[in-house]
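Subject: for your reference before the review

Hello V.,

The reviewers asked for a structural picture of the protein, and I figured it would be easier to keep everything in one thread rather than splitting it across files. Below is the amino acid sequence we used in the manuscript, unchanged from the supplementary table.
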Amino acid sequence: MRQVVLFVLGILFVLCGTVYAAVDLEEGVNLIQNGDFEQGDFAPWTFSQSGTATGTMELDGNEAYSGKSSLKVTTTNMDGENWHVKPVQVDLSAEAGEVHTVKFWAKAEAPRIVQLCLQRNADPWDGWLWQDFNITMEWQEYVHEITMPVDLDKEMFIAFHVGQAMGVAWLDDVRYYRGGKDDEVVAEPVVQSVNPMDRLTSTWGGIKGNYR
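And here is what came back from the structure prediction:
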């Protein structure tokens, strides 16, 4: 009987360990999708309006820190709650007890505050970060580190609260990853190799063509 009980407890331990396994994120790897807004649309970012506050969100092909476009967010009506107008990306993860970093580039048509938020996707909607940044009229990178207290497996969203002021703000090159500000893994540009034989064949073909 004792062996049966131990066997059952062992199975439960394995199952619980499987269900409640800790999140293990790769250090420095960006978890934001389409953070450079170069995919032709802003998905999977969404735009949230609440209360009587209103605004718009669109790609701006005339304004960008890098690449060809940025995310342009315009607040057209305020109701006293800064979070009532915001771009949002959901399904982010976090590793308990580890430092995480958010980096983004931003500018505004006039100096203003934009609030960065990290919060749970669903009830009880608990959050871990509401950080104000003073955004200027020139492109500037903003960085914030936070030690996350809980494991979150695609249970968190990132948002930029812009409902505290009327007007336009731009976002570009948004990154979020486990690790400190100096731990970011930067993707190297893809360099297409050239086969020397192909180049030689092409060159010889040109030479022959000139002497026909």
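For the response letter, the relevant points are probably these. The first strand starts at residue 46 and ends at 49. DSSP finds two helices and ten strands in the chain.

Happy to draft the paragraph if you're swamped.

O.
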